[in-house]
């Protein structure tokens, strides 16, 4: 009789411990899934920003954009063709 009671108590503790372990594991899984979703949103935002930066870079390096910056910020002008000196290799 004592052995049966001890066995039942031991099995009850095992079932209780198993239930707590399952609950803990599911909680951890939910937390990790929430973190994964946040990181995926951040990744998507960074990809959009990267594409916008690439587009901005491609527009800034065009000849017209470079010429516009040279004229407005650096006050550069196109030289008179008669004053240009061409150097040819020997």
Automatic annotation (TrEMBL):
Do the record's keywords include Coiled coil? yes
Give the record's membrane topology.
Single-pass type II membrane protein
Ordered alphabetically, the record's keywords are: Cell cycle, Cell division, Cell inner membrane, Cell membrane, Coiled coil, Membrane, Signal, Transmembrane, Transmembrane helix
This protein's source sits in the domain of life called Bacteria
Q: Note the Pfam families from the entry.
A: FtsL (PF04999)
Q: Offer one example of a GO biological process linked to this entry.
A: FtsZ-dependent cytokinesis
InterPro entries xrefs? Cell_div_FtsL
Give an example GO cellular component term for this record.
cell division site
Q: Where in the cell is it found?
A: Cell inner membrane; Cell membrane
Residue span of the signal peptide, if any? 1-23
**Coiled-coil positions:** 29-56
Q: Which family does it belong to?
A: Belongs to the FtsL family.
Q: Which HAMAP family match?
A: FtsL
What is the annotated quaternary arrangement, including any partners? Part of a complex composed of FtsB, FtsL and FtsQ.
Q: What is known about what this protein does?
A: Essential cell division protein. May link together the upstream cell division proteins, which are predominantly cytoplasmic, with the downstream cell division proteins, which are predominantly periplasmic.
Protein name per UniProt: Cell division protein FtsL
């Amino acid at each position: 009789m004592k052995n049966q009671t001890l066995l039942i108590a031991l099995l009850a503790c095992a079932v209780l411990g198993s239930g707590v372990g399952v609950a803990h594991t599911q909680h951890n899984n939910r937390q990790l899934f929430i973190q994964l979703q946040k990181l995926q949103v951040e990744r998507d935002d960074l990809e959009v920003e990267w594409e916008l930066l690439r587009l901005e870079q491609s527009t800034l390096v065009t000849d017209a954009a470079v010429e516009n910056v040279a004229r407005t910020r650096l006050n550069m002008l196109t030289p008179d063709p008669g004053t240009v000196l061409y150097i040819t290799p020997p």
